[in-house]
Amino acid sequence: MLGTRTENVAFRRGKRQGLMMSVTERYLRQDIPCAHKSCQLCPQNADLARRGLPQLSDSGMTLIPDASVVSRYIELLEHSHALTNLVFCQSVVDALDRRNRTRTIRNVRGIAADPRRTSVVFANEVFAQTHVDAILPARDSKAVMRVAAWYKAHLDGVGGQKVVLLTLKASKSTGQYADNQQPGVEVWQFAEFLAEFHPTLIEHFASITESTKDGDMDITEMTPAEYAQARLLAKAQSGYPSHLSPSEIEDGLRSGALVRGKIRILQSGGAMRAESQGNVDRGGAADTPDILIVGRAALNRACTGDTVVVRLLTRAEENAESKDSGIEQSTEETDGEDDNEALAVEQIEAGEETSLDDVRKPVRGVVVGVSERKWRPFVATLQLDEAGGSRHLAVPVDSSVPKIRIHYMDTAVIADKYFVVAIDEWPADSQYPQGHFVRVLGPVGNLDTEVDVILVERQIAVSQSALKFSLASTREMPISTAQCPWSPSTEEVASRRDLRDSLIFSIDPKGSQDIDDAVSMRKTANGGYELGVHIADVSQFVLPGSATDTEAMARGTTVYLADRRFNMIPEILSEQICSLRGLKDRYAVSVIWDLDSEYHATNVWFGRTLIRSACEMYYEQAQALLDGATNVDGLDPKMEASLSESVVELARAMRVLRQCRYEAGALELASTEVKFTFDKDSGAISELVPKSSLEIHRVIEEAMVFANAAVARRIYEQFPSAALLRRHRSPGSERFARLVDAARTKGFEIDCSSNAALADSLRRITEASKSDPDIVFLAKSMATLAMQEAEYFATGDCGSDSYLHYGLALGFYTHFTSPIRRYADIIVHRQLLEAVAASGAELKEVAVVGSQKWVSDTTGKLNERNRQSKRAQRESTELFQSRYVMQRTVGSGQKHLIADGVVAEIRTNGLIVYVPKFGLRGPVHLRDSSGQIKLAFSVLSGNASDSDSFIEGCSEFAADTKQLSIRLPINVPVFQLGSQVLRFSVFDHVRVSLRVLETRRRRPPVYLALVSRASSSASAMRAHKSTLLDKTLRVSAASSSAASSAASKKASDSENILSTGEKSTTGKSSDYYSVLERFGEMSLFETHCDVQTL
Amino acid sequence: MSRQELLSPEGLRVDGRRANELRRISCRASVLNSADGSSYYEQGNTKVLVAVYGPREPRQKSLAHHDQATINVEFNVAPFSTSERRKRSKGDKRLLEVASFVKQTFEGAIQTTVYPRSQIDIYIHLLQHDGGTLETCINAATLALVDAGISMVDYVCACTAGFIDETPVLDLNFVEESSIETPDLTVAVLPRSGNIALLQMESRLHSSKLEGVLELATEGCKHIHKKLDEAVLAAAGELAKKLS
């Protein structure tokens, strides 16, 4: 059966060494069928038919395209159904394969599987009669020629069909095929062939010729060995420069030639594209700006979070660099769908990355060494190696992390799943870091998996189940069951100040389980007041060094996600024994002030107490009391009167305290928070509401701030070097540039020289835009974004001048009031109690909470935990927002979810719009990655259904920090816009349609599509306009076809309608032309009517 | 054909074979003079040299069994066996695994009780590697053992079969073998009785498909048996020529 054996030589890249020759054997056989329908000579043709493969037909000629045609004009071959009876030689397919042209091969196979095309792939390489030895020069063209000759000879017996060899390399009788021309075979230049037989395809041919002119589409330009060599060279060039040695780095740092800092990568892009950039924060003083590192080569294998050593670029180098950057293109082979999807995701995300702030020329540098890697386990999804190998790319969920090469055999198990990967190393010659698979998290899109992803990505835990408390810590817990509830021990009752007779109450969100603060307020006999803030005494139960304590410290904080939370301390403490429940005796740590009638504190007492909360109120109830309501829902009527009095007194006091703080310069800031309510049965999100803010919220907040500040002073007195405080550094005024610019467009001046000045400016905006709370909110959140995060610190770490809390305008501040959910508060409690115990007596600084080093180390960890938990919270909110939008759009079959929004920021390719209704921000893309302007047609029509079609021919896209403008094409009616140039500036109202991008690999991001410019306030106006527009269009459409008399009647009819709609039109006329003329001038007319309504 | 196309729609494999075709086998016994038995075996581009010593006195007394012979198998891969030179250490687990498979296979086939207190050494060298290591090792070892005149129950013939695109495929070469989706079943049978001496598989295969793959591999074994028989006859013929 098997005839002679031959060997096939190919080149490939070796794992270690450069170019390898790989030799595979090949068996030459006699039984390769010609696959011609009416051929009687080949019995194997029946086999092909059985396999469902098409066969060559009798009609027309047999076309044999060579490698140059197939590789360059595959698109033409694929789409031109007129071209039938194609014979693709296996040698051509092999040649494509050697150049990694998998997509082209797929197309070839597609043609050969289509019965209408009657085309086949002919295995000439393994057919003894057509095989050409590999060592011959120009063997590929010889092989194709032999196939043609064989077919000619073979088909002679069948019907004597013409056999045509198509090539780019020859005209009829010259060129490549001239010297091995076989009798009977016609060699045609592809273009000439098309011109002769298929003139309709010439245009398509020309366009492909144009688009592939300088590309390397034609594989015959290079021999396989040259190609492999070239690729190898390209790889070597794309290799990264090696890092400097430790001693070189040491010298460089000492001489100041190099800088060390932490790198933060903004966008790695799907494939670590050239535009990746990172910022190196040098740490320390604010006067050293971040260093910008642009490009994959300059980043030199640094990953986000790494401590890197950077060499700064000189101005000249910088210029050279920016010229070079065009050349440095990724040569990575790309594969169809995956890339498209990645690109789509990238486009969505790109909106968030390319901030205009970077227009300011920053210091640039290149990474020359990495001194510390911050490789954590990353959550990723799989991008399959299409070549069928076992080395795949893991695409991390975090877009700042490059793809990771992993080796994994059983891809079916991890496809479409989130899994954890770890990076092992990143050798200089490898485009991607090398890593390994760790474990599977679960399928993409599953809610629990998505939550796990957040937990792992934020390094909170390895999974949700890992957040259960250990047996050891459970054993430490006091016992409290329904039958035998926990009660205070007699010794404790004796040693604590007993406040069970005082009226103490708590105000929390509805349904709260972990109540960690309660307040009391009463008038004293001398005309003053006694204000008490009582905080759950967690430190009583969580002893230093216990298993619970260790665990709580590791967690740092309770993590609140949109639909669940992960407690810092076991539920039995957080929800029962520590929680200050109503009518239960509970341990507390209290701060009690004596206030005079002007609310000045005359005395303050700290200490452990025993309290019994009279009532657990929720905010709405308390607010009702404050508003003077009676018979408030859910309150004990007997208590109501006294509670009401207390709440009112408390609010009065807090208003005064608050005012003091404002005068000192405290800021009122805003943050986007939304609440999700869930449908109990289906678990679906039933509603999404922004968190409301009542006065009572601020009252409680103020009381807590007051307590925190008092405690901060107290512990600082006791531990001048080890007190755990919280500070908020004052930001430099340049950070507010964006806010200042944005406010200016609305006519506000913002002074950000100090917190007091800033607070004042913000207040002015608040007052001036009362009707537009969204703008106020945005301005505040922009101010918040500009500021640095508040952080914990040990007082010994810095001078007393930097203890300031900028936002609250307090000299000393700490966290004391939420020990159930924050570990910092537990430390503060311990410090406070230590201080109280030691007061009067000599301080023995033995306790660990008094050690500066320990506190300093711990605050570092706590800050990190806080940051991560905040991000987790934000991500989970985003997750649910995305699910909500998905539910409302895809799930319900409804196409559009329209909402009003405000432009929050302007980016190089679009806008960031804030949608207050759902508390989300999202990108609106007005220009895609290729620079095409995408302006929805709905901007003109006002119909949401038009938001998917785009206006063609927009030009003059211009964006700066203040304004983005697009010029509409002349032929577009712009009645309602009033001008041909469309402008967007910050704080403009827009209407947007919310969508989610469906991806296989990631949590679908929410993005917005612009529906129209004006918002609800102008919607009535717009509705009118759009009917007007509709009519105009209808009239002009009708008039062009109808007979003039009928049309003129119609026109006058419609004019009547118009006139009733708009009284200010010029003189009535039944003349059809004058009507049209007026329509033509509609833009003017519209402007006019704008003026009227305004 | 192309890399991802292990079996083309036309039913041809990468090297031009159809699904049920073996690679070309050529083998010769008595290729080394110093060994008691030896063989050189080629299956496609996989080339193996085997030397058998014994039965002889065991190297270590502790290895000697009073009632049967000890079989010792050493398997080595030449550093030049693949185009990328690679040296393997003695303790390479993959080498040890192959050696132990071969050993287990022949413990059932060699009549060890005929040679008590003795040792039979089988040294296998893989000279060129192109897939199907285990099958070639077993086939070559059979030939060498027959050449050494060691009593065996029967020939041991091994063959691999895989499963590509819903089709059982015989005798995988290196390219086919290294695709992870391809299950790779090696069967060693005693052709006369049809007993299976070794059944080993890598990757996964649905149990309902196993029968077809196994059948194909067994069919291959029968063909290999013929080839080995011819080689033995040829060696015997040469020996007879020398004697006469």
Automatic annotation (TrEMBL), chain A:
One GO term describing the cellular component: nuclear exosome (RNase complex)
EC code: 3.1.13.1
GO molecular function, one term: exoribonuclease II activity
Keywords tagged on the record: Cytoplasm, Exonuclease, Exosome, Hydrolase, Magnesium, Nuclease, Nucleus, RNA-binding, rRNA processing
InterPro entries per the UniProt record, alphabetical: Dis3_CSD2 (IPR041505), NA-bd_OB-fold (IPR012340), RNase_II/R (IPR001900), RNase_II/R_CS (IPR022966), RNR_Ribonuclease (IPR050180), Rrp44_CSD1 (IPR033771)
Domain RNB: 496-838
GO process annotations (BP): nuclear-transcribed mRNA catabolic process; rRNA processing
Residue segments, region Disordered: 319-340
Main localization of the protein described in the UniProt heading: cytoplasm
Any Pfam family matching the protein: OB_Dis3
The keyword DNA repair is annotated on this UniProt entry: no
Cofactor or coenzyme needed: Mg(2+)
Catalyzed chemical reaction(s): Exonucleolytic cleavage in the 3'- to 5'-direction to yield nucleoside 5'-phosphates
Biased composition regions of type Acidic residues, renumbered to the chain: 330-340
Localization per record: Cytoplasm; Nucleus
Family in the record: Belongs to the RNR ribonuclease family.
PANTHER family named among the record's database cross-references: DIS3-LIKE EXONUCLEASE 1, RIBONUCLEASE
Name under which the protein is recorded: DIS3-like exonuclease 1
Automatic annotation (TrEMBL), chain B:
BP GO terms, sorted: nuclear mRNA surveillance; poly(A)-dependent snoRNA 3'-end processing; rRNA catabolic process; U4 snRNA 3'-end processing
UniProt KW keywords: Cytoplasm, Exosome
Pfam families: RNase_PH, RNase_PH_C
Subcellular location: Cytoplasm; Nucleus, Nucleolus
Superkingdom of the source species: Eukaryota
Extent of the signal sequence: none
Coiled-coil ranges from the UniProt annotation: none
One CC-aspect GO term: nucleolus
CDD domains given in the database record: RNase_PH_RRP41
Chief location of this protein within or outside the cell: cytoplasm
Exoribonuclease phosphorolytic domain mapped to chain residues: 21-150, 154-220
Alphabetized GO MF terms: RNA binding
Family: Belongs to the RNase PH family.
Subunit text: Component of the RNA exosome complex. Specifically part of the catalytically inactive RNA exosome core complex (Exo-9) which may associate with the catalytic subunits RRP6 and DIS3 in cytoplasmic- and nuclear-specific RNA exosome complex forms. Exo-9 is formed by a hexameric base ring of RNase PH domain-containing subunits and a cap ring consisting of CSL4, RRP4 and RRP40.
Name used for this protein in its record: Ribosomal RNA-processing protein 41
Biological source species: Coemansia pectinata
